[in-house]
Design goal:
Four copies of one chain form a homotetramer.
Chain A (H helix, E strand, L loop, with lengths): L4 E6 L3 H13 L3 E7 L3 H11 L3 E3 L3 H4 L6 E4 L3 H13 L3 E4 L7 H14 L3 E3 L7 H11 L6 E9 L6 H6 L3 H4 L1 H12 L3 E9 L4 H5 L5 E8 L4 E7 L7 E8 L2 E5 L7 E5 L2 E4 L6 H4 L1 H17 L7 H20 L3 E2 H5 L1
């Protein structure tokens, strides 16, 4: 094999550490050689824990290093667009956590910078790389269930994040549903034209007081004529609930939740099993490895990334449309937002 | 035990024969003593097959018979409202197949006649009496899963009915979804306030040419703040697909389809089981017995029927609202229709 | 259709009433016209409840009636063999509940009487007519899973019968396992050659004190080379546990338990469902109808019965072999017993 | 944290590479610093692939290195006992793949050497560390299902190994069932007293010609009075079939197979899912990490290993008893073999 590609990690928080661990421990053809975090201690800890050579505070040191082939952006959301622009200007390939930004202008500037520089940009929609959703995509793209007619995406968190987070999250549609918007496009293989949002505050009144929602049913009309619905809740007490199902002209496909074990216990009280995996890190652990491997492959072989810049933009459009639909209680075409 | 109550059956078609068989063979405290059908041969065959004493052409003979305690109306839909009025005037208790009528004025006249006569009227929403949906209702009414937040009702036929039927069916919302509208109210234990319909013709263009739809996602906003969605398709190739799930503040409940057997076969090609029950008569066989037993109980013991006249009216309002929502592509409040 | 055949029911206890109800309410081409029970009140109640014309104490009145085509023997086990002989002599076809007898000589005399008279004899191994086990048999006979290699039969009661019953039951192998011995032969489509029994008293010491066992694993070697194991317990606290699985050269098939509903409830404590059907009457309700319909068909069309006299004899041989294997702690060939 | 412990790996074949990868990539407190293989190229490749510093041919270099804290023995089975003796004499802690040996005398000498040296010895029964079987053990040890009565262990390979391997494998009971013997003891938490084996050649006649068997049902009588059965086949065409179930006085517990995805596809032909995981490396991938972590913990903290030398000896006794039972067609007490 040829030399592994050299990565610079920008942001050593929770998700940054996940990528660091996956790259250092599970991948042969890539390695993190520099990690930057505004909190230099965090950068240092990450470097120590996962065998990264250098830790710095200023991410420009990464961008300026000729040894670096690509960057992995895991910093705060509001810094993504700017760092993408800087990295593109520095000629580095880019893996960026979702969302690029909440502002379409900022996104478009970032995508333009990427296009101009001719570097690769992959957005971190890891769920596409989960074996279960990939199986659904396969069924749809191979025609195993014929033409798609109806789609359900169930996506519920075990519990709401802290209120402080909610307040800066961009709202449920840009923070939580954005993953499901990506999933809808990915699975269906075409774009959504119109969105209608029914939503409510049923989990925690404080979320409502903060101007956000915690429960939603979002109807999607796809370009291919199919219909879909996304079901979101900030709290499913039994755990992380992540399922999809699709009805097609020749059949249907559905996925179940994942469990820590496959044991069933029967007693005089009932037949039961343990709760599904509760935490997204447990549920999607392999998908993070798979998405990074795909990025590294694309960089090494100069092939297209599987989740490009436009895939980062459209879900933000959808999130804005979903909110407008809720605010005005009417179906909203994506064209209204995207224009 | 006291004497069984005497029933007159009006209409000896498919569903009429189901009720005749159930009453004659599975119930001790009621019996059909007269069956009427405009097709007198059909009435005769029904009488012969299930041991009914008399068969006639004119249902007025039933209404005029002092021996009859109650009537079971299984005639064509357009005759329901008038026969209800006649039966009420004759002082007979009434079991009537759904829908009462597609016209709210006709429904209101029928309900007024029933109220004036002080007789009982039960509408044939049999699915409420299915053990699976009853279990969901129990979970909701007992608080087993807390306050309801989100509901999914999946209701798909194995294939569309003949086009000739479609044309006089009243449309998918009054013909098919009406059962699901009833289910939504029954399970949630409260009314729907607003409906938004996304629908399409994806199964058969001829259905569209006839002015109807074959695929729909109908969003419901309930009075209690909960949200729901009904998923309808005229064709699920794998069979009759009838499931519900509800997320509540303290948990969730969901039902699966029913199968002709519980065997799983594993071969080198995959792990499979036979198709779910394909026909609504097989799927809901017990519910027909249970609903009639409930009606007979109510008549014998002079207690309220479990599915009253208003339960026949509201789903029609919902069906009309669903269609208007589709036609105008906007959420429609039930108050718009019902007023 | 031709006239229904006329049945005489001998024994109006629990199982007799099941057959009476099934015949009278669910079958068109047969009817019970006479019921006999040594307890004449029981015979009378049965006749009243299910519309049987005559009730008598002495079953000879049935055997002597020229109107009777066939008898259904549901009396106490120790009377079966003799009544079979009498019925055969009277030229009546015979449906007899299992077991024919615990004594092979008595069985052989009964079978000889049947052979001499040329009447039909069907034994009440109802489980063969359960849709689930029938599906397994179909998989094996059609070659869907290739040649059978390994079989598991799980057969557990929700709780032990009263001790008084245990004492006269013939022991677990002749009372409970006998059904599983029949199932093994039926599913495999060939005979067992050798049996090894491991058994214990783990549920209730009083069962042991009565000389019986309550827990067993019985290894079977079939003529076709396949191996099988029967798992019996007198108490599975979660309910009636009735499953089979077979591994074949081209795949496997397994059945699950049956449940009163298909709802799954997820709460913060776990994912659960209600208990499986608890009572054999609920679990096997349809199989009783199916077996009687098969008997009636055989009589009406003069075709072979699906469960003949030899099918009543062999499981008794197996039960005796199983006990001897336990007593002597060694594998026992059926040829030792049958000879 | 303190310094990681230093491991020497003896044997760089398939299982040796699994341990190398797990230790180097997933563990922080241990590292392989030396790898030995009689095939020096294999040792070199292993070292290169997983970042091991030194690769040698002669394992004595490992035993003689003062830097080495413990050895991981993954060499050919016939070398295990001798290397255990040597490693013990060298004062190294030992992790050894199963089986220690097929000869009880050799095993006893190895265990004596270990005892004399006072080093730790852990045997590689990795399945104990699988989350599913661990959950069953937890149910049994916590009393969640009461006292155990009946146990089934289903353990089937997707296909037989090459005939050349079969010939030197020690036979199905020492090669394949040995894992299930360990599982039986582990789950039940007590010893087996007596074994009865029914076995056959049904998969491949050449296996029979080689003096071995490919299909078996092995009945176990446990010291606590419970009964169990192990079901082995060398070929389940649908994949690696690894399940257990236990009936207890207060309930039952059972495990299902693991699948590459949780998708269910319904078409007009049936309801199906993809095959279970086919290969033991996929099925048990986490258990290998967990067992090594447990060994490292025991060495670092000087606590008892979870699977000791006696746990390596008893399954060999059981394998010998199983074979004798088959050869003599009688139940065999372990005391006969162990003495």
């Amino acid at each position: 094999m040829s030399t592994p590609i050299n990565l610079g990690l920008i942001g050593a928080g929770r998700i940054g550490r996940v990528h660091a661990e996956n790259i250092q421990r599970r991948m042969k053809d890539a390695r993190v050689i520099l990690v930057a975090d505004v909190n230099e201690d965090a950068a240092r800890r990450c470097a120590d824990d996962f065998g990264v050579k250098y830790a710095v505070q200023d991410h420009h040191l990464i961008l300026g290093s000729p040894a670096i082939d690509a960057v992995v952006i895991c910093s705060a959301t509001h810094t993504h667009a700017q760092i993408i622009c800087e990295a593109a200007a520095a000629g580095k390939h880019i893996f960026c956590e979702k969302p690029i930004d909440f502002n379409l202008t900022a996104i478009d500037e970032a995508l333009a910078a990427v296009a101009k520089a001719g570097v690769k940009l992959q957005i971190g929609f890891n769920r596409r790389f989960d074996a279960n959703f990939a199986r659904v995509r396969q069924a749809l793209s191979s025609g195993e269930i014929g033409q798609p007619h109806l789609m359900h995406i169930i996506s519920r968190d075990p519990g709401p994040p802290p209120l402080d987070y909610i307040k800066v999250s961009g709202g449920i549609f840009l923070d939580m549903t954005i993953h499901d918007f990506d999933m809808a496009r990915f699975l269906m293989g075409c774009e959504v034209e119109e969105i209608f949002t029914a939503a409510a505050v049923l989990v925690d009144r404080q979320i409502g007081a903060a101007g956000d929602l915690d429960t939603a049913l979002i109807t999607l009309k796809f370009e291919n004529g199919a219909l879909g619905v996304i079901d979101n809740s900030r709290r499913a007490v039994y755990g992380y609930d992540q399922r999809v199902e699709v009805l097609g002209s020749d059949g249907g496909i559905s996925t179940a939740n994942l469990y820590p074990n496959c044991a069933t216990i029967s007693t005089a009280e009932g037949v039961r099993r343990d709760l599904p995996l509760h935490f997204f890190m447990d549920r999607y652990i392999d998908s993070y490895v798979n998405e990074m491997a795909a990025f590294v492959d694309a960089v090494r072989n100069d092939t297209p990334v599987p989740v490009g810049g436009i895939d980062g933009r459209v879900p933000v459009v959808m999130g804005l449309a979903a909110r407008r639909s809720y605010d005005e209680n009417r179906p909203v075409k994506l064209a209204e937002i995207a224009a």
